[in-house]
Amino acid sequence: MKRTLTVLGLCAALPLCAQQLQVNAPATAAVYEDDRTLGIAPGVTLGAGDTAVFSATLTMTLPSEAIDRDEVLEDKAAVTADSDGSVLVYANGAWQEAGLTVAEGDTLAVEVVASSRTEGQVDYRFTLRKGEETRTVTVGAQGEAAFSILQLEGEGQATALAVANVSQGILPAGDEGAQDAALVAKYAVWLNDSSKGGAMPEGASEAELSDAFAMNVGGAPSLAITDIDVAARTITVVGAYAADAGEVPVDLGAINGALYLTYAATLDGPATHAKVEASAVDGGAATVALPEGAVFMKARVALTPPTDDTL
């Protein structure tokens, strides 16, 4: 039988010679042929609110016999092609059709998002891309929340393997109960950029990493309101971050977080928080609407809405 299968395995024993796939490392450049077992280092365990993103690019082969859709893979998630080219995904005890068909030799980009909105249980979102075609399959929460291996089974090729996972101390869970998968993937890219995450000082705290990632920079960020246009009811916000050479300007059109204004009618009055969209970004500075009732205010870029009671 010929097939290409990506499996995210739960706490299985690994051969001593197994290669390691480092969490938050750049996607692998190597091309893996046929059967291969890769350890995920360190293993990923999802607590409530955590998300992990697994990705790969597969060159598909088709099995000579139909997949046994009653086969139980225990605590695993998988992607494969059936003998007729139908792409199948497996999670939480069952196979499902993805609504996508491949031929021998087709390239399939795979992203599997595992989110634990409830302690000890995981739901999955498979995103599969073949050329211009994209299909998404979501599987409800069941199963376990720990992963230690990635397996490639059968004939074919795989490349661009990656695992992204980040502490909630850096990227808090969002409104839907788990970390945003797009931001988890972006964090791994940011971390490996020598001018951004790679430029952060050794021993930086999770709070410092969170602030820098939100601003998409490689140092301690800051914001300043430089202009208030009362007639147009707009303000201009500029950003910068601390580097060895001094303050470096920030492009507020390229942040990973959101721009928030915290404002009050009096200096010691109750604070109101508003997420604001820049109506114009000129040279990295953002022009945003001045909220009604804002007399005293401050701006910030953050990954979650602020909660201060006062300014």
Model description:
- The chain has 311 residues and is mostly beta strands.
- Helix content is 7%, strand content 48%.
- It has a seven-stranded mixed beta sheet with strand order 2-4-12-1-6-7-8, with no helix packed on it. Strands 3-13-5-9-10-11 form a six-stranded antiparallel beta sheet. Strands 14, 15, 16, 19 and 20 form a five-stranded antiparallel beta sheet that branches.
- A hairpin with a 4-residue loop joins strand 6 and strand 7.
Cross-sheet strand order for the largest sheet: 2-4-12-1-6-7-8
Sequence stretches where pLDDT stays below 50 over 5 or more residues: 10-17
Order of SSEs: EEEEEEEEEEEEEHHEEEEEEEE
**Mean pLDDT level:** 89
Number of alpha- plus pi-helical segments: 2
SSE-based structural type: mainly beta
Q: Roughly how much helix do the residues carry, as a percent range?
A: under 10%
The tally of beta strands, per DSSP, is 21
Report Rg.
Answer: 23 Å
Question: How far apart are the termini?
Answer: 66 Å
Let me know the largest β-sheet: 7 strands, mixed
Overall geometry comes to: elongated
**Percent of residues in beta strands:** over 45%
Highlighted features:
mainly beta; 311 residues; seven-stranded mixed beta sheet; 21 strands; single chain; 48% strand; six-stranded antiparallel beta sheet
Describe the protein's topology:
Blueprint lengths: L4 E5 L9 E4 L9 E2 L2 E10 L5 E9 L17 E5 L4 E6 L2 E8 L5 E12 L2 E10 L2 E10 L3 E8 L3 E9 L15 H11 L14 H10 L5 E9 L4 E10 L2 E5 L7 E7 L7 E5 L3 E3 L2 E5 L6 E7 L9
Parallel strand pairs: 2-4
Antiparallel strand pairs: 1-6, 1-12, 3-13, 4-12, 5-9, 5-13, 6-7, 7-8, 9-10, 10-11, 14-15, 15-16, 15-20, 17-18, 17-21, 19-20
